[in-house]
From TrEMBL:
It is found in: Cell membrane. It comes from the Bacteria. InterPro entries: DoxX, DoxX-like_oxidoreductase. PANTHER family: INNER MEMBRANE PROTEIN YPHA-RELATED, OXIDOREDUCTASE CATD-RELATED. This is DoxX family protein. Belongs to the DoxX family. Keywords: Cell membrane, Membrane, Transmembrane, Transmembrane helix. It is a multi-pass membrane protein.
Amino acid sequence: MTADPTPQAPVRRGPGASTSLGLLLLRLVVGVVFIAHGVQKVWINGIPATQEGFAGMGVPMPEVAAIVVAALEIGGGALLILGLGTRIVGALLTVNMAVALVLVHIAGGFFASDGGYEFVLTLGVASLALAFTGPGLFAIDAAFRRRRS
């Protein structure tokens, strides 16, 4: 019996460098956008105005929701940038954007300029993609995985 002359492809564990660079760029941009919107809710508009705005949009428990959403956007955005807890944070931010889409933006149609859902859809799907893929190699999550191996 002769050996198979065709070389076997190496088995890769996780994304390569170019995919990881793409995920890093995605995490950075999505994280910065979420942080900016959280900062807007807390320090630009202020929590009381955000709570009032949420109430006017029909968000349930606006007093609590405004604080939770602002904290999620600031904290979650920072965690995405670092690549820490990426899958969980991505899932939480996806839910956040899905709620915003259903409660606030769907009635405005597609275009954000008309109050529509294109922006929250984009952020939600980007967050979902990070929840599915993870952060890539250039992340704290990946450093923890390498250390455990």
